[in-house]
Specification:
Length: 488
C-alpha cells in the first residue's frame, strides 16, 4: 500500500528592510558586532512601552494582499508569555489567529518543476523576533541585535505533497518578499527560518477529511531551503518505514524534532504532550486601531510588479526564453541590474547573455553579490556598445570584461589603454593585406581559390601583424578579392 505526505510550513521571514525594529526605535540592521542595535525596550527594562512601527505593519499588509488573504477591520496584538533568556521581557508581542492576524485564508500559486501548484494560506501575522543564542563549548552567549526585529510568520495549510513542492514555494516566497521590498531574504543572515510539519496518510484516503490524518511531526527551525526539502524527504521515509514495519504507533508520535544537517536526520527534541500554555491575552499597551479603507487601498496600489509578471514581460517584450527569464528574475537585484542596463539603451538579448553568463559566473566564482561587483549597468551598456559599433570583437569583449573587473577601470578606458580598438578603416586594412601578399609569394603560388581553408594562412598573417585587431570580416573579404584576382 502506498502513502502520500501532507506537509504544512510555518515560514518566518524577517522584514529586514524597515529602518527600525517593530516596537522600538533601535535600528533594524544586521551586524556582526553583538548587541549594537538595542534600546531599553529590547532589553525589557521596567516601564518600557512598545510603539508600533507603521512601516512594518504596511509591509505585513502588503504581503497579505499578495497572498490573497482577507485583511482585518481592526489591528491589534497579543502577548505570548514565556520565560527564556532570548526574550528578556518574558513575553513576545505577536498575533495569534484569534483575534485576527494581518491576513487570513488566502492562497499562493507557485511553480514546481514547470507545473503550476496552489497552496492555501491559513494566515500571516506580524510579531517581534527573539534574540539569538550561540551555544559555545561550555557557555551560551546572547546577541540582542535581532531582538524585536519585525518578523512575518506565514502559516500554510498542509497542502504540500513533497519536499520539492515545499522548496519551490519557499523560492517563490523569497522572490515575493524581495520584490515587495520587505526583506533581503538572506538565509546567511538568518532572515528565513521554517518549521516544517509532516504526516503521511494512506494513498487512497481523502486528505481533506481530518479524520484520515496521520500523526503530525514538527521539525523546528530549519534555516535553509535545501534543509527543508531534505528533512521532509527524511520524515516521509521514516514515517513510511514505521507503517510498513508495524511500529508507526510507537515510533511516530506528536512531537517536535530538529533537523541535523550533518547526519541528514531529524532528532526528537520534545513531545507535544507537555505543550506550554502561553496564556495569550490582548497586548494592553497597544490600542486596537481601525484599518481604514483609504490606507488599505493606498497599500494595495503600492504593490510593484512581482517576479512572475516581470518574467512574462521579458518573454513577451524582449523575446527572451523562459529559461533565461527565470534566471534573471530569481534575484531582484540581478533583475534590477538587467532592467537598468536595458533602460540605458542596451539590447535586451545581449544584456541578458552578459548578465546570465559572464556576470553570474563571476559572482558565483567570487562568492559576491551584484552590489559588490565593480561593473555597473552603465559599464555593461558601454561594453555592449563597443561590440555593436565594431570597436572590439566579441572575443575581445571577454578580455575587456575581465580587465574591467581586475583593474577596476571602465570598459572605454580599458580599450584605450590596452590599444584594443579594432582596425575597421579600409585604407589601413588594405595596407596590411598588401604587405602580407608582398611577403608571401610562395603561399600565393599554392593558393587554391576553390579551397575554403586556403585563406586561413593569409588571414592569420594579417591578425599577427595587427595583434588581432583587424576587423576579421573586412580582412577576409579584401584578402579573398586580391588573391582571387592574382590567380585569374
Ligand atoms: P499546532 O497547533 O500544532 O502548531 P497548527 O494547526 O497551528 O498546529 O498547524 C501548524 C502547521 O502544521 C500548519 O502549517 C499546518 O498546515 C500543519 N499541519 C496541520 N495538520 C497537519 C498534518 N496532519 N500533517 C502535516 N501538517 C499539518
Ligand atoms: Mg505551530
Amino acid at each position: 500500500m502506498g502513502y502520500k505526505a501532507m506537509i504544512g510550513l510555518e515560514m518566518h521571514c524577517e522584514a529586514s528592510l524597515t529602518n527600525s525594529k517593530v516596537f522600538s526605535s533601535a535600528r533594524n540592521s544586521y551586524s556582526v558586532t553583538p548587541n549594537e542595535n538595542i534600546r531599553p525596550y529590547d532589553m525589557g527594562f521596567p516601564g518600557v512601552l512598545p510603539v508600533v512601527n507603521k512601516e512594518a505593519v504596511k509591509m505585513a499588509l502588503k504581503t497579505s494582499m499578495v497572498l490573497n488573504c482577507k485583511q482585518p477591520e481592526y489591528m491589534y496584538f497579543e502577548r505570548k508569555n514565556y520565560y527564556y533568556p532570548d526574550m528578556p521581557k518574558n513575553f513576545q508581542i505577536t498575533q495569534e489567529t484569534k483575534p485576527i492576524p494581518v491576513g487570513i485564508y488566502g492562497y499562493v500559486d507557485y511553480e514546481c518543476n514547470g507545473e503550476e501548484r496552489r497552496v492555501r494560506v491559513n494566515n500571516i501575522h506580524l510579531e517581534e523576533d527573539a534574540a539569538s543564542s550561540d551555544h559555545l563549548y561550555d557557555t551560551t552567549v546572547i546577541d540582542y541585535n535581532r531582538a524585536g526585529n519585525p518578523l512575518l510568520e506565514l502559516v500554510t495549510e498542509p497542502d504540500f505533497r513533497s519536499g520539492e513542492e515545499a522548496e519551490s514555494f519557499l523560492d517563490h516566497m523569497r522572490c515575493v518578499y524581495q520584490y515587495l521590498g520587505v526583506s533581503e531574504c538572506d538565509t546567511k543572515k538568518g532572515h528565513i527560518r521554517c518549521d516544517v510539519n509532516v504526516s503521511i496518510i494512506d494513498e487512497s484516503l481523502d486528505p481533506e477529511d481530518p479524520s484520515n490524518w496521520g500523526t503530525k511531526v514538527e521539525v523546528k527551525n530549519v534555516n535553509s531551503f535545501g534543509g527543508v526539502r531534505e528533512c521532509i524527504k527524511y520524515e516521509i521515509k521514516r514515517q513510511t518505514r514505521a507503517k510498513e514495519e508495524g511500529t508507526y504507533d510507537t515510533e511516530v508520535v506528536q512531537e517536535t524534532r530538529r533537523w541535523d544537517e550533518e547526519t541528514g536526520t531529524t532528532i526528537s527534541m520534545r513531545s507535544k504532550v507537555d505543550a506550554v500554555d502561553y496564556k495569550y491575552f490582548v497586548e494592553p499597551n497597544i490600542p486596537k486601531y481601525k484599518l481604514t479603507k483609504e490606507w488599505l487601498d493606498e497599500i494595495r496600489a503600492s504593490i510593484p510588479e512581482l517576479a512572475y509578471d516581470r518574467k512574462k514581460r521579458y518573454m513577451n517584450d524582449y523575446e527572451l526564453s523562459e529559461y533565461d527569464s527565470n534566471i534573471l528574475v530569481k534575484e531582484k537585484k540581478i533583475s534590477d541590474f538587467f532592467e537598468e542596463t536595458v533602460k540605458l539603451g542596451a539590447d535586451p538579448k545581449e544584456a541578458c547573455n552578459w548578465v546570465n553568463g559572464m556576470i553570474l559566473s563571476y559572482l558565483n566564482y567570487n562568492m559576491i553579490t551584484i552590489d559588490e561587483i565593480f561593473m555597473t549597468p552603465e559599464m555593461l551598456r558601454d561594453l555592449i556598445k563597443l561590440i555593436d559599433d565594431k570597436t572590439i570583437s566579441s572575443k575581445q569583449a571577454k578580455d575587456v570584461f575581465a580587465k574591467v573587473l581586475e583593474d577596476k577601470k571602465e570598459p572605454m578606458k580599458v580599450v584605450k589603454d590596452e590599444g584594443m580598438m579594432q582596425i575597421t578603416d579600409e585604407g589601413s586594412i588594405e595596407g596590411i593585406v598588401d604587405e602580407v601578399l608582398a611577403e608571401n609569394p610562395k603561399a600565393i603560388e599554392t593558393y587554391d581559390p576553390e579551397n575554403p581553408k586556403a585563406l586561413d594562412f593569409f588571414i592569420g598573417q594579417v591578425m599577427k601583424k595587427t595583434r588581432g585587431k583587424a576587423n576579421p570580416g573586412m580582412a577576409y573579404k579584401m584578402m579573398k578579392e586580391k588573391l582571387d584576382n592574382l590567380k585569374k
